């Protein structure tokens, strides 16, 4: 048994935990990350890399915009290029309902400081002639972008080492509890860790941690459907998605086109396994061809999935524990966390060290489930395969 | 799949293992689906030479070759044979197909799956291996048998494998000009392994006869070759330089065929539920099966895709696996015959272990590869880049982490050409055993598939 | 990029025919140059018996002429006019086929780039 002591223990060494540790350590806090395998091993390393701002739940925009400002500085902060590129996002409407949705969002988002441009078919055709003609409108957000997720947490890990953040790898936390005014954690590998404060960035396993502190949440897991082509001549700058998320497409500078598309399928958080089903590959292959016809004949060379935590209202848990002072939660990012993570880390560090933050996160309180939640069943049916949502 | 025909059995691979399995099932009154990527049956080892070439090579006169092709011809009308078809994924007891790269829009359900996916060349890259004029050993043979061509006019066969000698002999027989064999394993190792090879006496006899024949034709054979580099002019092979023992040598040549044995194609097996384990004899991860080839519920593996054994063993393994499948379906089988087949198959496997010792994977040469040597020919990633990342990893050392950070193995060939070498280079850089880095995890599609034509008509 | 004739003695090609097929002649074009092959030849054979390479690698800019010959290494992709890409080693040559090493101009793609 190995005993350890720290000021702030962080469960989970993914993007959320790593960015939080980064911000805390830069302000002089003593931080220890306890990570089950290696930093960035799960969703943080295999997600789509979408740095999307438009389309977010409106109260999330302040956090998202703050995060994007940090992403723009990421090469300097991390000391290496993690391929963050501000290439813009185009949300394409293929029917009247989708068009109404993006027009409404464009109007509402203005109040939060996000300006998006609504484009008519002629403008779409002129700027991006490779989009199929059945696009009837599009919403263009120039400040959105993309990143290479595989590079992010490894780059952060190097910075954390330089900041003297302890990262315990290969350690599975089996329990955590209050100990006096602080916390005590145990790992399967025989560590006992005492800390003044505890941060739960346990990702798809974060609900287990919350349950240890008598605040269960209706989180469920799902796996995104992702695939990638061979390298192709570079022609697509922005990320393109159809408004309903049925297909999301972007091309990296090296030439590979990365493709995702809803509904998401099952993932196994116990066996740590998720794979893109064959039937889904067939569906998404056809969707790609239909929206970008010149990609017909390009080869898909790889598909994958991941294990992500989702809430039935499709927004994350962020903020203080409702039962235990000194405990902070940030998990269940419902498939849209990667863009938020630098901002999330900054906000959590402010809440922990200063007791307040300039960026509001009240909408994501863990105890919102004490009230009856109206869940949009139609929306969830579009986002997930049958049987995946367990509320 | 029509269940009126009985249980749905899909066999992937129409080489000797797949044909052997199909034969057993047809004789039991079943009608399996036999799926193969190639245009003609026979796999690699029993590849049917293109008849329009009028090329007559000894291997095609061998009894086993003739028999396997006769078996197939008799079977063809009694099975659902799908040539030029790729199985790109397996999930939920359905096989996902592509015909010449174009996906078939529904999965093919099955009750039992027999995978006979074979093997490809195991490659140890050397400086200059991406010059034009360098081919795999298997590629050199295919180009001869299917196209009637030699890969060049002055061909060097380099590596370590019985195929070096077989391919060279086939080239001589077909009238190729100058042929040289550069074998990285010292002769003494071969001699030491000969007893084990003799577990299948025909294998040893054929090998000795082959060697004698080559020497009689004046073919230069150098053993114990190390440090080989291929040099080029205008991007084409111009010659090779190497150490023979301690003597530096150089040869002019315009083509090099490279190979160090076989690398099992295990991707579909793993996607279908098989577990892999490291095999120190063959320096790669191979699927775990029981004595009859059962790898998971309803999943059977046979041939070089399960365990490197050669063509004769593959056919026997295919028959054994099909019998196991029949037994699991509640059909009665000839248990004595099953034991006879297993015993013969196992003798070949034991002999192959001897061959693996006689023709060794150059495990210790990877640390000596210059940093600038390209490892991943698809993504142009060097040994130096792999080493740097491998050394930087803390905690879990896994080749898939190295892949994510270097792009080595992320290209179109899906780590088939570089995968084993990348593991060896990374392991040597960390001073760990290759086994510790595991292997490249398969992800569907197991080979590239095309994005189809748009379904929506133009407005 | 050299395209030779089918003179076996002085061909700049890589592959060297050891026997001729007993099949009809086929004429096809490779980067606009007319070439002759036999029915039954793979594109790999048809092209690289006469030319030194069939592709320029997108990342190292060096020539490639195939490697494994059996559809595994993915190094021998060529473009067929009409916008399709094929592996030269597993595709047969046909009369009138127009093969290129460089991609066609596609809508939205700025300029011709290599395969």
From TrEMBL, chain A:
Top-level taxonomic group: Bacteria
Oxidoreductase as UniProt keyword: yes
Domain FAD dependent oxidoreductase: 8-351
GO function terms (MF aspect): oxidoreductase activity
Signal peptide span: none
InterPro entries noted in UniProt: FAD-dep_OxRdtase, FAD/NAD-bd_sf
Gene Ontology cellular component terms for the protein in this record: cytoplasm
The name this protein goes by in its record: Glycine/D-amino acid oxidase-like deaminating enzyme
Originating species: Chelatococcus asaccharovorans
Lineage of source species: Bacteria, Pseudomonadati, Pseudomonadota, Alphaproteobacteria, Hyphomicrobiales
TrEMBL record, chain B:
Domain FAD/NAD(P)-binding residue range list: 9-314
Listed SUPFAM superfamilies: FAD/NAD(P)-binding domain
Keywords: Oxidoreductase
Cited InterPro entries: BFD-like_2Fe2S-bd_dom_sf, FAD/NAD-bd_sf, FAD/NAD-binding_dom, Metab_Enz_Cyan_OpOx_G3PDH, Opine_Oxase_asu/HCN_bsu
Molecular function terms from GO: oxidoreductase activity
A Pfam entry, by short name: Pyr_redox_2
Designated name of the protein: NADPH-dependent 2,4-dienoyl-CoA reductase/sulfur reductase-like enzyme
Organism this protein belongs to: Chelatococcus asaccharovorans
UniProtKB/TrEMBL annotation, chain C:
One Pfam family linked to the record: Fer2_4
Classification via Gene3D superfamilies: 2Fe-2S iron-sulphur cluster binding domain, sarcosine oxidase, alpha subunit, N-terminal domain
Source taxon at top rank: Bacteria
Keywords of this entry: Oxidoreductase
SUPFAM superfamilies in the record: 2Fe-2S ferredoxin-like
InterPro entries: 2Fe-2S-bd_N (IPR042204), 2Fe-2S_ferredoxin-like_sf (IPR036010)
GO function terms (MF aspect): iron-sulfur cluster binding; oxidoreductase activity
Name the UniProt record assigns to this protein: 2Fe-2S iron-sulfur cluster protein
């Amino acid at each position: 048994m190995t005993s350890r002591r720290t000021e702030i223990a962080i469960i989970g060494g993914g993007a959320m935990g790593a960015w939080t540790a980064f911000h805390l350590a830069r302000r002089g806090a003593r931080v220890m990350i306890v990570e089950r395998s290696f930093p960035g091993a799960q969703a943080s390393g295999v997600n789509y890399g979408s740095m999307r701002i438009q389309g977010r739940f409106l109260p999330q925009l302040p956090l998202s915009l703050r995060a994007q400002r940090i992403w723009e500085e990421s090469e300097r902060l991390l000391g290496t290029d993690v391929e963050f590129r501000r290439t813009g996002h185009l949300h394409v409407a293929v029917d009247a309902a989708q068009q109404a949705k993006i027009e409404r969002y464009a109007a509402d988002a203005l109040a939060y400081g996000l300006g998006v441009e609504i484009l008519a078919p002629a403008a779409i055709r002129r700027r991006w002639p490779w989009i199929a003609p059945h696009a009837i409108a599009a919403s263009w957000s120039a400040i959105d972008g993309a990143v290479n997720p595989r590079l992010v947490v490894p780059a952060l890990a190097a910075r954390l080492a330089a900041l003297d953040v302890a990262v315990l790898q290969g350690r599975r936390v089996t329990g955590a509890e209050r100990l006096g005014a602080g916390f005590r954690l145990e790992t399967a590998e025989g560590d006992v860790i005492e800390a003044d404060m505890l941060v739960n960035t346990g990702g798809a396993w974060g609900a287990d941690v919350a349950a240890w502190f008598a605040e269960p949440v209706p989180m469920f897991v799902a796996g995104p459907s992702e695939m990638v082509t061979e390298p192709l001549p570079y022609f697509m700058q922005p990320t393109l998605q159809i408004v309903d998320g049925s297909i999301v497409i972007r091309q990296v500078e090296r030439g590979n086109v990365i493709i995702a598309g809803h509904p998401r399928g099952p993932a196994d958080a116990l066996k740590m396994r998720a794979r893109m089903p064959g039937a889904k590959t067939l569906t998404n292959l056809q969707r790609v061809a239909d929206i970008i016809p010149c990609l017909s004949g390009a080869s898909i060379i790889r598909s994958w999935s991941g294990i992500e935590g989702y809430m039935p209202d499709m927004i994350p848990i962020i903020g203080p524990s409702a039962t235990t002072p000194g405990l902070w939660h940030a998990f269940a990012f419902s498939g849209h966390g990667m863009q938020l993570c630098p901002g999330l880390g900054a906000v959590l560090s402010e809440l922990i060290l200063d007791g307040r933050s300039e960026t509001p996160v009240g909408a994501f309180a863990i105890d919102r489930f004490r009230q009856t939640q109206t869940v949009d069943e139609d929306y969830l049916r579009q986002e997930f395969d049958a049987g995946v949502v367990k509320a | 799949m029509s269940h009126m025909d009985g249980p749905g059995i899909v066999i992937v691979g129409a080489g000797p293992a797949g044909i052997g399995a199909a034969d057993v099932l047809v004789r039991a009154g079943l009608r399996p689906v036999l799926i193969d990527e190639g245009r003609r049956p026979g796999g690699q080892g029993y590849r049917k030479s293109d008849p329009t070439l009028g090329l007559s090579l000894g291997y095609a006169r061998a009894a086993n070759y003739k028999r396997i092709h006769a078996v197939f011809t008799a079977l063809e009308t009694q099975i659902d044979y799908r040539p030029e078809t790729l199985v790109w994924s397996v999930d939920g007891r359905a096989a996902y197909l592509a015909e010449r790269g174009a996906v078939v829009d529904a999965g093919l359900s099955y009750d039992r799956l027999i995978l006979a996916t074979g093997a490809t060349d195991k490659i140890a890259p050397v400086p200059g291996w991406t010059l034009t004029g360098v081919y795999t050993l298997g590629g050199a043979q295919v180009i001869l048998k299917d196209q009637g061509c030699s890969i060049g006019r002055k061909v060097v066969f380099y590596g370590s494998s019985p195929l070096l000698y077989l391919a060279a002999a086939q080239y001589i027989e077909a009238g190729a000009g100058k042929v040289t064999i550069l074998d990285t394993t010292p002769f003494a190792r071969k001699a030491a392994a000969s007893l084990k090879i003799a577990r299948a006496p025909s294998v040893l006899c054929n090998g000795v006869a082959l060697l004698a024949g080559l020497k009689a034709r004046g073919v230069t054979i150098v053993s114990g070759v190390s440090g080989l580099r291929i040099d080029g002019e205008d991007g084409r092979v111009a010659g090779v330089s190497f150490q023979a023992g301690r003597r530096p040598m150089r040869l002019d040549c315009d083509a090099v065929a490279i190979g160090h044995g076989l690398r099992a194609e295990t991707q579909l097996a793993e996607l279908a539920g098989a577990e892999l384990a490291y095999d120190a004899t063959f320096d790669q991860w191979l699927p775990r099966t029981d004595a009859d080839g059962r790898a998971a519920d309803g999943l059977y593996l046979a041939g070089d895709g399960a365990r490197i054994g050669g063509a004769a063993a593959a056919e026997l393994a295919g028959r054994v696996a099909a019998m196991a499948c029949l037994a699991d379906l509640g059909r009665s089988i000839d248990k004595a015959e099953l034991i006879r087949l297993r015993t013969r198959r196992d003798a070949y496997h034991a002999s192959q272990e001897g061959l693996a010792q006689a023709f060794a994977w150059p495990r210790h040469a990877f640390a000596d590869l210059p940093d600038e040597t390209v490892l991943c020919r698809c993504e142009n990633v060097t040994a130096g880049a792999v080493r740097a990342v491998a050394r930087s990893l803390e905690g879990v050392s896994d080749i898939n982490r190295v892949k994510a950070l270097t792009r080595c193995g992320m290209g179109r060939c899906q780590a088939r050409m570089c995968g084993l070498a990348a593991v060896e280079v990374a392991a040597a850089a960390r001073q760990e055993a290759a086994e510790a880095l595991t292997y490249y995890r398969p992800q569907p599609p197991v080979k590239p598939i095309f994005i189809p034509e748009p379904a929506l008509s133009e407005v | 990029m050299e395209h030779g004739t089918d003179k076996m003695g002085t061909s700049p090609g890589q592959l060297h025919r050891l026997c001729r097929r007993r099949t009809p002649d086929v004429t096809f074009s490779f980067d606009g140059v007319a070439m002759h092959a036999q029915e039954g030849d793979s594109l790999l054979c048809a092209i690289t018996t006469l030319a030194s390479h069939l592709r320029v690698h997108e990342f190292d800019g060096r020539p490639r002429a195939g490697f494994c010959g059996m559809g595994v290494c993915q190094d021998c992709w060529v473009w067929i006019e009409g916008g399709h890409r094929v592996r030269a080693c597993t595709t047969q040559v046909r009369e009138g086929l127009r093969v290129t090493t460089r991609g066609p101009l596609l809508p939205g793609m700025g300029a011709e780039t290599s395969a």
